[in-house]
Predict the structure.
Amino acid sequence: MAGMVAAVIVAAGRGERAGGGVPKQYRDVAGEPMIRPTLAAFLAHPAIGVVQPVINSADASFYRAATAGLEELGLAKLPPPVPGGATRQASVRAGLEALAARAPELVLIHDAARPFLTDALISRAITVGEAKGAAVPAIAVADTVKRVDADDLIAETLDRDRLRMVQTPQVFAFDLILAAHRRAAAVGIENFTDDAALAEWAGHRVSVFEGETANVKVTTNEDFVRAEILHLAALSDVRIGNGFDVHAFADGDHVMLGGVRIPHSRGLTGHSDADVALHALVDAILGALADGDIGQHFPPSDPQWKGAASDRFLAFACERVRARRGMIANLDVTIVCEAPRVSPHRDAMRARIAAIAGIPLSRVAVKATTSEQLGFTGRGEGIVAMATATVRLPWSG
Ligand code: CTP
Ligand code: MG
């Protein structure tokens, strides 16, 4: 009977080459902190029994935020992260030591900074690992590779057919790699940049198997930019939705507009907080998704929505976009009323809408106009809002 397969995900680095203030594994790639899809790929794989993250102790709150809800993919599979060390090698060792008591048969060691690996690569690593005991994914080199001397003069042209670029997940019999790590640490060698090199040093034969060209290690800021462009290119199902809402004035001392409380000589009637701007935005987003309308999801007849803050309606609509792995490209709302004056509150509304939707301020517009004293808005009987949303979804035909 085959033993348990474990994974160690190293995420304790500082990401110095990428810059950006936050360690790179917690920066967004394709709309999610990079470590999240990496962990999710291993957690979701049926052959993996445990996924041990290794993080820098200084990053505990980044880790918590980036992985919130991930346990749903397998609570028992995701033990708390353990602290890493000053080098990648030390971090891997910490992960292996944390797994030792579980006595896995095989371990896959993977960089958090490689979020694009597929299920198929994990499966291949396990199959080859079981057969060979030590193996690493690799891809052929397309360019001719030169070795240069200190003066940038070519010293040698290498035989391209014999060269490979290696990636992770690197796979090993657990006992073999743990023993090799302990030996290296015992003699004070701490600078192996991958586990294959450490296994070779310990005298083991390490095989290569087919890696994936998309399985790049996000290293520089340019890598982030490239990843973002690829992500946007994949969200090619671009949709536009519109929304419209009206609420009538009644007695009161304030109105809620765009999530902002504005003191006024009148209030607005409605089953929730009657925020016409947010309601129009919700319908615009649901319209882009072809996913019903606000009344269908939050029936006015349902007493639980009486007086409710409309924030949650907007948050719900945005969650429907995320659930389909899409993004909101922009939100635009126009408010029509004679009073209150909207412009002093415009930026507060934009900030509030952006915060609820979880999108940048630069993607939210709030505009206002009167209707030149014409019609019901002109007579001060109520407020109208019209909204547009652009939503990008993965192409599904
Ligand atoms: N890593 C680690 N512990 C370290 C150093 C690196 O766990 N002391 C992890 C990184 O978090 C990353 C992987 O090893 O997932 C590969 O390392 P690298 O791409 O070099 O990441 P960083 O060391 O964070 O980046 P940089 O070298 O640019 O500072
Ligand atoms: Mg590094």
